[in-house]
Amino acid sequence: MALRIEKMASEAVGVAHEDGKTILVRGALSGELVESRVVESKPAYSIAETVGIIEASPLRIEPRCPYYGICGGCDFQIVSEKTSADIKRDILVDNLRRIGKIEDIPENIPAYYGSFSGYRHRARFHVDIARGKCGFLGRKSSSIIELDCCPVISDRLNALLKEKKTLLKAGRDAMFSNRVDRVTGFAEVSAFDGDDTLTLGKDEVTITISGIGYRVNADVFFQSNPSLLPHLLSFVKENATGESLMDLYSGVGTFSALFEGSGKRVYAVERSKGCLELSRKNAPSALSFTADVALWGKKSGRHVDTVIVDPPRTGLSAEALSLILSWKPERIIYVSCNSSTLSRDVGRMTGYKIMKASVFDFYPGTGHDESALVLDRT
Predict the structure, then answer these.
(1) In the CATH hierarchy, which fold is given to the domain comprising 84-115+223-377?
(2) Helix (H/G/I), strand (E/B), else coil: 218
């Protein structure tokens, strides 16, 4: 089926229409005419894959990884790093207007990007102990793709992948600890590359970002693109106002650590005990709480000047959003890895206006986006 792509949508998929039905097309770019195949049909829309290019966009490039389309990792290697960031900025603006019903959007939204090569300092490997195989899952499959070199991970992670013995040993340990993919049955081994060495599992390493030595391990989330993270940290630090701050979904204290020694009172709230243990090391002066944000907020009810939120991809629950608004902070800094749920939540923030916005393309070569907004109480 030949389709003309009208625009790009979340997860960097193309949007087309056929017989009045919306079709989301993977592997296509705005303006292109592509041959597509529907792989999933739903009442409101269908999902299709690009199987051929009839008229290519001038922005299209050849994928830089020989495993593109085979490995399930990167799904958007068809544009340059700059173009990728620009597309994700356009998607953010479109989502704010279409989903959030917001018209008053800042005109100048910076889109930060970096190199595709070697940007990832964290990886999750799959290990088949029985067959002695290590690598990543194939695209839409439960098979392991073995490769000697992945172009997006760091040199030390690639050395680990090539050597295999360490991964196989860690895979056996993971099996005994029940860290197994329930679908494939393969052991899962997470690795994180710090300043001087890498870690598997809970052993801590230091990674220095913007002069801050963060203590992290491979079992917790920390942004895997250290070259781009300083831009996001600067955005948050420069826009946090007042003497009291609330860091919700604080993780390992990535944002809380920015205010060490500032004299500001910081409340860090994180559900994961493992993350909060590291947060207490990274931001020792913050008042740290292990709790679900919505439950903690219901009990606290305290006023703060700035609320920083960095929720999971599902965004804020209705209860958490209602509680945040009830505190009436002067400013909300919303960091998001999903501009669709971000737009939904911001559209519900009655009494607040978007003052600034930025896009951070932490994952070039993929459809994932990261953005941050500053909202002030009107």
Answers:
(1) Rossmann fold (3.40.50)
(2) coil
Residue carrying structure tokens 């800094």? 333
Assign domain 2-60 to a CATH class: mainly beta
Q: Where are the domains of the chain?
A: 2-60, 84-115+223-377, 122-209
Residue pair 184/191 in contact by the 8 Å Cβ criterion: no
Nearest to 331 by CA among 267, 273, 286, 375: 375
Q: How far is CA 199 from CA 106, 188, 349, in A?
A: 41, 14, 41
What residues are paired with 353 via a beta bridge?
376
CA 158 to chain centre: 22
The predicted model scores a pTM of: 0.93
Specify the pLDDT at position 302: 66
| Per-residue pLDDT tens digits for 63-112 | 999 999 899 889 999 999 999 999 999 999 999 999 999 999 999 999 99
The model's confidence at residue 142, banded by pLDDT at 50, 70 and 90, is confident
User: Within its chain, how far is the Cα of 105 from the centroid?
Assistant: 22
Residues 6+ apart with CB under 8 A from 232: 112, 223, 335, 358, 360, 370, 372
pLDDT of residue 299: 60
